[in-house]
Design goal:
Largest sheet: 6 strands, mixed
Helix content: 25-40%
CATH class of the largest domain: Alpha Beta
Strand content: 15-25%
Number of helices: 12
Radius of gyration: 25 Å
Distance between the termini: 58 Å
Order of helices and strands: HEHEHEEEEHEHHEEHEEHEEHEEHHHEE
Shape: globular
CATH architecture of the largest domain: 2-Layer Sandwich
Structural class: alpha+beta
CATH topology of the largest domain: Heat Shock Protein 90
């Protein structure tokens, strides 16, 4: 790090990536900070600086002890171990130490007492909610939400006719011709464990998964203006059912609430939607397959006069960014769901869905909201159109 960069950080103040410490009270406190950064996006702990950015500095003995503490914390207290780097810098003839911690690749990290620390703005806090700790395991592919048991849904809840039709389409022969029970088939396909469906099995093949999984629906609304906070709406719907049905109904809701342009077509033509259908299909499919199912919240779809918004629970996983998803990079958050989706939805899993959506409708804004734990697609509507 250059001195100019450090001065800029101190001037801007603490945030989720930079923590200031006048000193380190003990090695356990230092380890907690390192755990929080490792469980997040990484960052820097700058020692010898007050919370407001005022430089107090460290003497040579302080620095010597601090570097020992960093080594001890990283190897003895943080679990699994991490490898931070330290840099001693001089500002106004005062020494500060910069501890640089990269995002951990073996999440979740904890201290010697088994506490999972996470960043909360410029500070840190203990992760205590089950869903939050599950998401930490999810980041290292140690746990996937779509493999978690589906809240009591079992074989009796399966739409067996629909499942059998899917099985024959996918494998080219009927399930009845297999010398395997239905429960064993479900287990073999990783859709559950014997008589109990997992989340993927329930969402894909249960008769009505929303009876036990009421948060995993789509709440859709159409509003006459550009603001969703008003009391007036044009249309609204809670979209429930199997994933394939939810997909089709969501597409129909959006298409039914946007303009269709006649163009050069005949007077009896239905016209082309102002937002290409393929764009809507790619973005809705991505929302249903890649949302974070550890968050008990619905996908929200808003049709406003200037845009369509698709809001998914969960920000982009791991190191994905808006820039690299636009380049075709992907990270499968729900691998079981994704492996079946290409037989049910217009989804291929090649990482090219965002590219196709942009090809047919370039005016799309993506927002990766880490603080709100949301991913938002804003599809701007055309400014002029013929009804």
């Amino acid at each position: 790090m250059e001195t100019v960069e450090l001065m800029t950080i101190l001037a801007q103040g603490e945030d989720s990536y930079n923590q200031f410490k006048r000193d380190v009270p003990n090695v356990n406190a230092l380890a907690a900070e390192m755990v929080a950064f490792s469980n997040g996006q990484g960052g820097k702990i700058i020692i010898g600086v007050d919370d407001d950015g005022q430089i107090f500095g460290l003497d040579t003995e302080d620095i010597k002890q601090l570097k020992k503490d960093v080594s001890n914390a990283a190897s003895q207290i943080v679990r699994p171990i991490i490898n931070p780097t330290t840099q001693t810098m001089t500002i106004d003839d005062k020494f500060v130490v910069v501890i640089d911690i990269v995002p951990g690749i073996n999440k979740p990290y904890q201290d010697k007492n088994g506490v999972f620390w996470v960043k909360s703005g410029a500070d840190k806090r203990k992760a205590t909610a089950r869903e939050e700790i599950q998401r930490l395991f999810q980041m290292s592919n140690l746990l996937h939400a779509d493999e978690v048991p589906a809240n009591g849904l079992g074989l009796a809840d399966l739409d067996q006719e629909y499942f059998d039709a899917f099985f024959k389409k996918r494998y080219g022969e009927s399930r009845e011709d297999q010398d395997i029970s239905l429960g064993q088939t479900i287990t073999n396909l990783n859709l559950g464990d014997g008589n109990v469906l997992n989340l993927a099995g329930a969402l894909l093949f249960a008769k009505n998964p929303s009876t036990r999984l009421p948060a995993f629906i789509v709440k859709a609304g159409s509003f006459p203006g550009t603001d969703i906070s008003g009391i007036d709406y044009s249309d609204s719907k809670d979209i429930t059912g199997k994933l394939g049905d939810v997909f089709q109904q969501t597409i129909s809701f959006i298409l039914g609430n946007i303009r269709h342009v006649q163009g050069e077509q005949g007077v009896n033509s239905l016209g082309e939607p102002e937002i290409a259908r393929i764009t809507l299909e790619e973005l809705v499919a991505n929302a249903l397959i890649h949302r974070d199912y550890f968050i008990s919240a619905p996908i929200r779809v808003f049709v406003l006069s200037d845009r369509v918004e698709i809001i998914s629970p969960g920000h982009l996983p791991n190191n994905l960014t808006i820039e690299n998803i636009k380049a075709g990079n992907s990270n499968t958050r729900n691998p079981v769901l994704a492996s079946f989706a290409n037989q049910i939805l217009p989804y291929r899993g090649y990482g090219a869905g965002i590219l196709r959506a942009l090809k047919y409708h370039p005016d799309i804004e993506f927002v990766d909201d880490h603080d709100g734990n949301l991913f938002i697609c804003r599809i701007m509507r055309t400014s002029t159109a013929e009804s």
